[in-house]
Every structure is written in C-alpha cells, then in structure tokens.
Amino acid sequence: MRKLLAVAARELRERWLLFPASLVFGFNPLVLPAFGVNRQVMPEVGLMTSFGLGAAAAVLMGSTMLARDASNGRLGFLFSRPVSWPAIWGGKWLAALVLVVSSGLLAAIPWMTAYPLASIGGHHGDSWIRAMLDGPGAARLLFVIVLVVGLANFGATAFR
C-alpha cells in the first residue's frame, strides 16, 4: 500500500499544475458577463466548463498514464525498482482519478459559490454537495470517468 501511494504521489507531483489551472478556469462564468455575455446563461456555462475540464483531464490523464512513461523509457526503470506491477498500475490509476475528479470539482467551486442551486432549477436552500451526491448520477459519473480514462489509456498505448 505504501508503494502504491508513493507512485500516486509522484504522479500528482508531476501534474500539480492542473489544480490551479482548474480553479482559474472555474472563474470563466464570473468573468464572461464583463465581456457582454448574457448573465442568465452563466450557471449553465459554469456547469459545462467544469464538465468539459473534467472530460479533458480524463482524456489527458488516460492518454499519458502509461504510454508516456513507456515511450520515454521510464516504465522499464519503474519495473526494475522493487515495486510490483499492481502497485505501479494502481498508483497511476489512483493519481489519474484524483486529478480528474478534483479538476472538475475545483472548476465548479467559483460558480457554485456565485450562483445558488435555485438558479438552475434546484430547490431553494438545497446545497450543491447534496445535489451532486444525491441519486444514481454520482455513481454513473464515476463510472464514466473510469471508462474515459481507461479508453484513453488503451488508445494512447495502442497508438505508441
């Protein structure tokens, strides 16, 4: 378990710039009205920005998870270390999932604080966290994230 977390921490250290970039992209719906975009559509723009950034992060992380290390020759180095292949594989998957989910959530924070849940048809007084985790939508979203990361990983590995 310690080796798995060490591999995941190394992956997160390499791609830490995704966190502040996601937060900056989250301010998109708050800045666009200053350029003349209708303020009424900004909650939907924020939602699409966070989903789009999460999808782009899923494709990026999936395509660079193992294929980049294999093409650079670092994968052989990782396998020559006293780390088992499940720890390497699991650490890379854990880091990819953490990066994808956190990038979408970090992009959603600014517009969730600026626009209440009632502005996109939710009940007045409901919280965004309860709305996101309520129902089967959260499980489906996690399944789609894992599927996109896996398919991007397979495609990039097959391409290289």
Descriptors:
single chain; 160 residues; mainly alpha; 75% helix; 0% strand; elongated
**N- to C-terminal separation?**
30 Å
Please report the number of helical segments.
Answer: 9
Percent strand equals under 5%
Radius of gyration: 18 Å
Q: What is the chain-wise order of helices and strands?
A: HHHHHHHHH
Describe the protein's architecture and organization.
- It contains nine helices and no strands.
- The protein is elongated.
- Helix 4 (42-64) runs antiparallel to helix 7 and helix 4 crosses helix 9 (137-159).
- The chain has helices at residues 2-14, 18-25, 28-31, 42-64, 67-72, 74-80, 85-114, 128-133, 137-159.
- 75% of the residues lie in helices and 0% in strands.
- It has 160 residues and is an all-alpha fold.
Short structural description:
This protein has 160 residues and is mainly α.
Topology of helices and strands:
Blueprint: H1 2-14, H2 18-25, H3 28-31, H4 42-64, H5 67-72, H6 74-80, H7 85-114, H8 128-133, H9 137-159
Helix pairs in contact: 1-7, 2-7, 4-7, 4-9, 7-9
